[in-house]
Amino acid sequence: MGEEKVKKDLLNRLKTLKGHIGGIERMIEEDKDCIDILVQITAIKSSIDKVGQAIIEDYAHECIVSSMEEEEDVEEVIKETIKTILKFSK
Fold first, then answer.
1. What is the Cα–Cα distance from 1 to 76, expressed in whole angstroms?
2. Looking at residue 64, what is its pLDDT?
3. Once rounded to an integer, what is the mean pLDDT over residues 50-77?
4. Where are the domains of the chain?
5. What burial class does residue 33 get, using C-beta atoms within 10 Å of its C-beta: 0-12 exposed, 13-18 middle, 19+ buried?
6. What is the DSSP-derived secondary structure letter of residue 45?
7. How many CA atoms lie within 13 A of 70 on its CB side?
């Protein structure tokens, strides 16, 4: 994980997600409507996907740039990066 701003943003998003999960726990304990709980779960899933996308973007950038700087086989690094992205998107 490279840039400090990116890292701080991701940590803030994850802390927010923890809070939302705690909210869902409370909703279940308080027997809230299933629809309301599912809406919150959908929001959490979307937030988790955004965190994953940001991490993949940072990972791809770091891998490709470092391979160019170190004069590695950029094509191979790009193939591996694409495999990682595809695994995440399943």
1. 21
2. 80
3. 82
4. 4-88
5. exposed
6. H
7. 10
DSSP secondary-structure letter at 56?
A: H
For the segment 20-30, what is each residue's pLDDT rounded down to a tens digit? 999 999 999 99
Q: Hey, what CATH topology would domain 4-88 get?
A: Methane Monooxygenase Hydroxylase; Chain G, domain 1 (1.20.58)
Residue 35's pLDDT band, with cuts at 50, 70 and 90, is very high
Phi/psi of residue 41, nearest 5 degrees: -65, -40
DSSP-based three-state secondary structure for 2:
coil
How many residues make up the chain in this entry?
A: 90
What is the pLDDT, as a whole number, of residue 14? Answer: 93
Stronger pLDDT, 73 or 9, i.e. the higher one: 9
Place of tokens 């909703």: 27
